[in-house]
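Figure 2 data, in text form.
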Amino acid sequence: MKRKLFRAGKVGLLFILFAILFSYAMFQGGFVSWFLFYSFLPFLVYMGGLLFYPLDDWTGARTLSSGLIESGEAVDIEVELRRTIPFPLYFMKVKESYPETLHLKVRTGEGVATVDREEKTVERMIFPWFRRKVRFHYRLDHLPRGSHQLGEMYIRTGDFFGFVKKEAAINAGGRFTVYPPSRNVTLSFGSKGFGQGKSAAANVKERHSNMVAGLREYAPGDRISWVDWKATARKNKMMTKEFEQEKSSESVLVLSTLSSPANTAEFEGAVEFAYSLMLKLTRRETRQLSFLSLGKAGKYVASIHSRRQQEMIRYHLAEVYPDETGNFEEEMAKGHGRLPAQATLMIISTDLDDSIKNSLLRLSPSGRNVVLFVIMFHKEWDFTKQKHVRELKEYGVRVQVLTEKAWKRPEFEVEV
């Protein structure tokens, strides 16, 4: 309704201008007055035509230079605008306004990836005149990880004097996915070289009692010499030492998406590390790997053995976002039933709080080898976290903290 009233007002003003010029030429007479009337008449006709020209006649389409993009990279986008009515347009301003998912700016290179939040917009001035088809292109750089849906683009035009202005929105489509980056990972499997996917001893009594990996509850057939009496007294139940040769060749990579949006850089680092570690472990034929992500959009993939499963995880890691509503202890309890017995758990988190500590303390005595990777860039490693690490180490849980220094190296160096 407002648009119709606005158009009616503009039409009325054009008629008033025409009437004023015509009246001036009629009453004044002479060459000058009629010259002004006829000189300005084409502009009046153009403004009237532009006023009724349907700007919605324009349609658009976007074409991406690459369909495979990694976080931090750039993409060239070509925009093609078409129309059916070749009305002469002196100029047209095109504005691209991008969704919030693209407002993150990821800078990669030396050092840790830093994430800045900035609004991305692109504006272009084109001069279509009578052309039915126009093209222009631009580049989006430092793209953030995620699945991005490009929205509408806005076009604006007007007459030579700015008396008539028109604007319309064009839905040009365009959806693309930016995948997490990856880098090489150098793995070491403990100082003694056990627990790296090799076959366990056939006879459970043939163990190296000097290579203790953790603690678990007493089971029939365990030797008395394997009992850890300090842990037994502390937990008020029989606890025996767990040895490296007991470890299964199965591993589960667990990514915790339970993170605050304030830890964006750490979360992006956790996703990158999870993807890199997954690629490294799936290349090792001696180790069977499963994947589990904790959070609102959790996903479980058992026994990764095909390229299709790797791509499924890669796409999941591209779309996953921090979940600040969940609780690690509860999410881990939900997924615990899916995990293979005796499998090595490699857990990646952006924090180490009471919920994570309590959950891992319950997992360790069950006979699992548990490794916790904490991605921490800007937070202080305070006394509480140091206390959590000491408690976890007492129960055989290995904790590795990955700081900015890990991202300054060309590859990750970790121990599992």
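Caption note: The longest helix spans residues 2-28.
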